[in-house]
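ok so I'm stuck.
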Amino acid sequence: MRREDRGMRPRPPTRVIPPTRALLKTRVNPRALVPTRVILLTAALVSAACILPAFARGRDDNRPASAAPSLSVLAPQSAYPGDCAVVILEYGDGRSSSEATGETRVEAALRDETGATRARAAAFALDGSRREAAILALPPGMTPGNYRLIVASVSADGTVILSDTPCAVEAREFVSETVRLDAANTAIKKDASAERMAQIEELNGILFRQDAGAVRFAGPYAAPLQSSRRTSQYGERRTYAYSNGSAERTTHLGIDFGIPTGSPVYAAGDGRVVLAKSRVTTGWTVVIEHFPGVYSLYYHLDSLSCGAGETVRTGTLIGKSGSTGLSTGPHLHWEFRVNGEAVSPDWFVGRVLF
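replied:
not stuck anymore, here's the structure
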């Protein structure tokens, strides 16, 4: 592995997708937070939003609260598997949520028609004082249907719903492909060695971590290279055809760019490098943390230009593309994970989260 000199690429014009600003009036149960608190909550999705009525309910109260501060919420009309939902809370008295609610934490969740939670995210402070954000991930296999976007305060005493609005998850079609692996790649995919299992455990430990001390990069995010040639898309239903005649179905969790070995690869956003090493399956690998629970991943690199613990900016050179690990040819595999779930990298490009 060669470690290349770092640099910055010229930033091409990027279409910026701002956070949605429209709000909806609803009410907060006075048991949920200190009674005089005013909270502004914004939920943003890639799809167009519609204004819908909502009422907050306590654990044992199905009636709207009568003497409570107002809660403003933007509820998306619909979303697609692979999207994210950004929920923003603002505390009106200038204090942080930890000061306003003590041991209470605030979470956002998507619940299906049976009441089961299908996506969940904790809220984290944005600026150390008045605002927090929670980012929900809709995985590629999420079942279409009618859901509820729930915001709740959670404490040792129980859970109190602050906001409950409808959200429809629309059907999204993904293409299918068959990838034929030679003996060498089959051996990598079937590798059950202690080394590979330890690497998988290490990476999962990172991707499912929501570090309150992480950076807070709002965006806009950018593509990691200048080429637009794609050989595989996010969410593809993939069949691996092994050299021994067997096969395995899986879902492709990122985007593959077919580019020559040695092509520069850049950070998709500001953040901290939390992993930069060689792995059995993904070859030379870089993982960047952009927000608590939000990570971009870059696989099969030929060389690295960054190290774990370093801070990078959008457009910082982090490595050169290659064909290391499980790979059928030179390419970059680019991925985004939110709270451990793989979401569409395209959703992030040009987007300002909050």
